[in-house]
């Protein structure tokens, strides 16, 4: 389980553990050129639910190094290899900006009014967007502070979190991965258009690792096996977890997803919201509100579908989701949850009252409205969505690698339902994922190859 602790306030989540429990085992000679077994040590640690987290102990920032003494030939059958996500991408030992002593988490929650926050930050005039953001923050601040404090205290008691010591890691986690997936999707527009009546809706990954690019870009790709597979795109290797499916395309090429003919009980959306930092960095393209409204969520959603949308801290986007987007999709807003980002020592990664960036992000949860009888049937034996919850975790240092929602949503949905993530950048077992960078964080350079006993 990725949930380390569950309290009334929410969940303390181990994102790294979740990735490494996705089943990245390869039974394939391609996974280990020359059919060698690497002798790389692995450490297993237990969380409070008894699940194991496998951690690579390689000292190289680019995966394990190996000498002839580290490898042994395997004969008669392909080597079984296991990949684990590189631990250093979650190695956040101290805050990006340290909060003033009176605001530090374990010293209790200082009560601050909106007026006090304004005075402490700056004396110049605020624009309307900043005023709206300050007002929202003043409403949720106490819930976030107190809930995070309780979850952090549990994490410190169990040993999952550790108070800061002199032994801070100095490892670098810069991986020169060139992601050309979005460009590939742009090039794919030159292929013949996919129509609703086209017969091939699914491409099933076979044992071979090289896949025709046109197949991967023109229909949903499935890994129906019980082990991971490696695919190669433009010479780059990507891991596909077991029992997962994906469509690599941009928003103008969604027809293959509709041809897939599945209806989803959970749809998670992480839109590329427009903001100043995105415009400056050119990290990824953004979509306008009008374009986001065109996503065919009503067509993809099953009756009573749970829709979860990640929202930045701009109030403009939050109001758009609740007042325009969800009504347009016939989705009723039920709750606002918050993802709170902490260090390994349990501190906020940024001061809670930072004027610009906050140590939290918002999730808006709602349900598709429709057939009342079907909705009642689907809601049997599941808990109602709480109005407010916290998901507290050590964030990945890779931009926009969101924490998993599978475990935290489990008690609010029936088991074995169909789940879809839109604008995804990674894959999950049991989920269909779509986006023009849907394989980005599946690149093998983000993983370490380990020996499988």
UniProtKB/TrEMBL annotation:
<dbReference type="InterPro" id="IPR007757">
    <property type="entry name" value="MT-A70-like"/>
</dbReference>
<dbReference type="InterPro" id="IPR002052">
    <property type="entry name" value="DNA_methylase_N6_adenine_CS"/>
</dbReference>
<dbReference type="Pfam" id="PF05063">
    <property type="entry name" value="MT-A70"/>
</dbReference>
<dbReference type="GO" id="GO:0003676">
    <property type="term" value="F:nucleic acid binding"/>
</dbReference>
<comment type="similarity">
    <text>Belongs to the MT-A70-like family.</text>
</comment>
<dbReference type="GO" id="GO:0008173">
    <property type="term" value="F:RNA methyltransferase activity"/>
</dbReference>
<feature type="region of interest" description="Disordered">
    <location>
        <begin position="53"/>
        <end position="76"/>
    </location>
</feature>
<feature type="compositionally biased region" description="Low complexity">
    <location>
        <begin position="53"/>
        <end position="66"/>
    </location>
</feature>
<dbReference type="GO" id="GO:0005829">
    <property type="term" value="C:cytosol"/>
</dbReference>
<dbReference type="GO" id="GO:0032259">
    <property type="term" value="P:methylation"/>
</dbReference>
<dbReference type="GO" id="GO:0005634">
    <property type="term" value="C:nucleus"/>
</dbReference>
<protein>
    <submittedName>
        <fullName>METL4 protein</fullName>
    </submittedName>
</protein>
<dbReference type="GO" id="GO:0009007">
    <property type="term" value="F:site-specific DNA-methyltransferase (adenine-specific) activity"/>
</dbReference>
